[in-house]
Design a protein that fits this description.
Rossmann fold; 7 helices; alpha/beta
Length: 226
Amino acid sequence: MSTDPSSPFGRIGVFGSLFNPPHVGHLILCSEAAWQLGLERVILVPTGIPAHREAPAESSDMRARLALAAARTDPVLTVSRVEVDRPGPSYMVDTLRELQRRHAGHGLVLLLGADQLAALDKWYRPEQLPELARIAVARRPGVEVRGLDDAAVERIDMPQIGVSSSLVRERVRRGRPIRHLVPEPVRALIESEGLYRVAPGAAAPGDTGETVLGWVGSPFDPEVTP
């Protein structure tokens, strides 16, 4: 378990994603990060307007509701609307700066996947991220990424869980059950709002932008706020 003596009020994890929808891989990542890194809580940050990809059909308000539904299942989780309520494209550097202001005295820990760490130089003002938060990386089996041995990068060991948001959406489109793939409040909200369905008789569209990676379904690269 890791602690940060420079943070008098403890450490807070920050996990950004589209959360379209949140699934069990997201929850397990947050739970493992909180336990392994000594985080007092993890803030789920639904992406407002994606900066480098087309916005999904589901609104940022709906995705924030889905994140809130997921957060109800674990007392370590909270949700911030910092990106949903902020106009313009969502950039993590702006989000961390605002969260740092709101949680003065706490150390922030940005939760990433190995793929995200590898692509960090493509983010907006990436050189400022380590000034605003520690970086913690969930390692992906079989992926070698430069920077994982950096003393400034903390590691999160993850079990292998083959779930992704795209998988959940596809199962809903095809009328297949998603119980146990998403938290029950998330499943209930998807059902009550009729999310991810297609018109009767229509072919389910193919997936784009996300791949089931066989560990946490990559809740990072396609969805995390750059």
